[in-house]
Specification:
The complex is a heterodimer of chains A (360) and B (83). With 360 residues, chain A is mostly helical. Chain A has 21 helices and no strands. In chain A, α3 packs parallel to α20 and α5 runs parallel beside α7. Chain B has one domain: F1FO ATP Synthase (Up-down Bundle), CATH 1.20.20. The two termini of chain B are 32 Å apart. The chains are: A mainly alpha (360), B mainly alpha (83). At the A-B interface, α3 of A face α2 of B.
C-alpha cells in the first residue's frame, strides 16, 4: 500500500523533503515498539502498588523496567526522590531510544512530537527560577528529551536568575518568544509556547494525504480537543465567563470541539452542547456533572484519548500510529507511578489516588 | 558463418527446449524476488522483536522463512517445466 502511495506521489524535490521521507523501516521500528509496549506495567499491578509503602514501591519499580535507572541513581537519591528521578530518566532514555531505532519520516515526526518535553523543561526552569526553587527541586521535574541533554538542563537549573536561563537558550527556536518574558507574564509565555508547539507540529505533519498521516493528525487533534475540553471545564467551574479570557487559553486545531462557540456559554448550556460531540461518551456515565470533581472528568478524558490511540494503532499497523500509541501509554504509566508514590508520600487517601489513575 | 548456423540450428532459443528453459528461469526468478520481498519486512520485524525480547528468536525465525514456500513452488514448477 505504502509502495503504491510512494509510486503515485510526486518525487520529493527539495533537500529537506528528501530528509523527511527517507526509508523509515516501519516493520522493524513498529515491532520493536510493540514489544516495548508489552513490557509496560499490566493493569493488575496498580491495585497491588496502592497497597504498598514508598520503599516497597521503589523496590517494585527496581524489579521492573526501571531497574537500571533506579540502580544508577540509588547512590544520589532516596525514597520518593529516587523514584521520581528514575522515572524521569527512564522516560528520557525511552525517547532517546525511539530516536535511535527510527529513521527517515518516522524519526522526523517523532522528533517533532517529542519537542513537547523540551517545552515542558523550559516551563519548569522558568517557573522554578521565578519562584526561587532550589536546584534540586527543579531537577526533579526535568525530562531530558529532545535536543536538551540532562547536563545542559542541569546547567540551566544552576543559573541564578531566569534572565540567564533565557540567555542560554539563545540558539533554540524558543528564544524569540522567551525574550518577551519579563517576570510577570509567565502564564502568557507558557500558553504561547504550547501554541507554538502545536502549530510547529501541524506544520511538520503538513497536509496529511496517506492514511497513517491522517490517523496521526487525528491523534494530535484529539489531544488538542481533550486539552481544550479539560481547560473549558476548569474555567467554567471557576466561573470564568469572559470570552477573551477563555479564548486566549484555547489551542487551535481540534477535531470536533469549537471553543469559540462554547466559550461564551454558561455551564449548563456548555454541558448540553457537549452532548452532541463524541466526547460525551467518555463522560456520560458520570452521574452528576455539576458535582463531579474535575479529577474524575480529566482522567475520563485521558482514558478516552488513550483508548482512541490504541484503536487507531490497529487501523494502521505499520505506521507512526503504534509508535505514538506507545509514547502516550508510556507517558501515562510514568504519570500513574508518580501519582501513586507522591500521593503516598503526602499521605493521601487510597481512594483519592485511585481516582487520579488512568489504568488501561 | 557455417559453424554459427549449425549451433543455432542445434539449439534455437525459441525452440521447445529453449522455451522450457526460459519458462523455468522466469518461474525461479519471479518467485525468488517475491519471497525476498515478503521476507524483507518479516525479517526486519523479527529482528526488531528479538532486540527487545530474545525469547522470540524461534518464532521470528519460523515466521521469517514461511514465504520461502513461494520460491519452493517456483522450483517445483521449474523442474516440472524443464523435465
Amino acid at each position: 500500500m505504502r509502495l503504491l502511495e510512494r509510486l503515485r506521489g510526486k518525487k520529493p524535490s527539495k533537500e529537506s523533503e528528501k530528509k523527511k521521507k527517507g526509508t523509515s523501516n516501519y516493520a522493524y521500528a513498529v515491532t520493536r515498539v510493540r514489544a516495548m509496549k508489552s513490557n509496560l506495567l499490566p493493569k493488575e499491578s496498580y491495585p497491588r502498588l496502592l497497597n504498598m509503602g514508598i520503599d516497597e514501591i521503589t523496590r517494585f519499580i527496581q524489579e521492573s523496567e526501571y531497574k537500571n535507572d533506579v540502580d544508577e541513581l540509588a547512590m544520589k537519591y532516596s525514597g520518593g526522590d529516587l523514584a521520581e528521578h528514575a522515572l524521569n530518566r527512564n522516560l528520557a532514555l525511552t525517547h532517546d531510544k525511539l530516536g535511535r531505532i527510527t529513521s527517515g519520516e518516522l524519526n522526523y515526526l517523532i522528533t517533532a512530537y517529542l519537542k513537547r518535553y523540551e517545552i515542558l523543561s523550559i516551563k519548569t526552569l522558568l517557573r522554578g527560577k521565578l519562584y526561587n526553587a532550589s536546584v534540586e527541586e527543579i531537577l526533579e521535574f526535568l525530562i531530558a528529551s529532545g535536543q536538551f541533554t540532562y547536563t545542559f538542563l542541569s546547567e540551566l537549573a544552576a543559573k541564578a536568575t531566569y534572565q540567564e536561563v533565557v540567555e542560554s537558550l539563545k540558539k533554540t527556536e524558543y528564544y524569540p518568544l522567551l525574550q518577551k518574558f519579563d517576570g510577570t507574564n509567565l502564564a502568557d509565555i507558557e500558553n504561547e509556547l504550547d501554541k507554538m508547539y502545536y502549530s510547529s507540529l501541524f506544520e511538520a505533519i503538513g497536509e496529511p494525504k496517506s492514511k497513517d498521516r491522517k490517523l496521526f493528525t487525528r491523534i494530535v487533534r484529539l489531544e488538542v480537543d481533550v486539552k481544550n475540553l479539560s481547560n473549558l471545564f476548569r474555567l467554567k467551574k471557576a466561573g470564568v465567563e469572559q470570552y477573551d479570557d477563555i479564548m486566549s487559553l484555547m489551542i487551535e486545531g481540534g477535531i470536533e470541539l469549537k471553543p469559540a462557540k462554547l466559550a461564551s456559554l454558561p455551564y449548563d448550556e456548555f454541558v448540553n452542547a457537549l452532548q452532541k460531540t463524541q466526547y460525551w461518551d467518555a463522560i456520560s456515565d458520570v452521574t452528576d456533572l455539576d458535582m463531579a470533581s474535575l479529577t474524575i472528568l480529566e482522567s475520563k478524558f485521558t482514558r478516552y484519548y488513550l483508548e482512541s490511540a490504541t484503536t487507531f494503532s490497529h487501523a494502521s499497523p505499520l505506521s507512526i500510529v503504534p509508535v505514538m500509541d506507545y509514547i502516550i501509554h508510556k507517558n501515562n504509566e510514568v504519570n500513574n507511578l508518580r501519582i501513586i508514590f507522591r500521593g503516598k508520600e503526602t499521605g493521601l487517601d487510597d481512594n483519592l489516588i485511585k481516582e487520579q489513575l488512568v489504568v488501561i | 558463418m557455417v559453424e554459427a548456423a549449425t549451433v543455432a540450428a542445434a539449439a534455437p532459443i525459441f525452440g521447445d527446449a529453449g522455451l522450457k528453459a526460459l519458462g523455468a528461469a522466469i518461474a525461479i526468478a519471479g518467485t525468488g524476488i517475491a519471497s525476498a520481498w515478503a521476507e524483507k519486512d518479516i525479517g526486519s520485524a523479527a529482528i526488531g522483536a528479538m532486540a527487545e525480547n530474545e525469547a522470540l528468536f524461534g518464532k521470528g525465525l519460523i515466521l521469517t522463512v514461511i514465504p520461502e514456500t513461494i520460491v519452493i513452488f517456483g522450483l517445483v514448477v521449474a523442474l516440472l517445466v524443464s523435465s
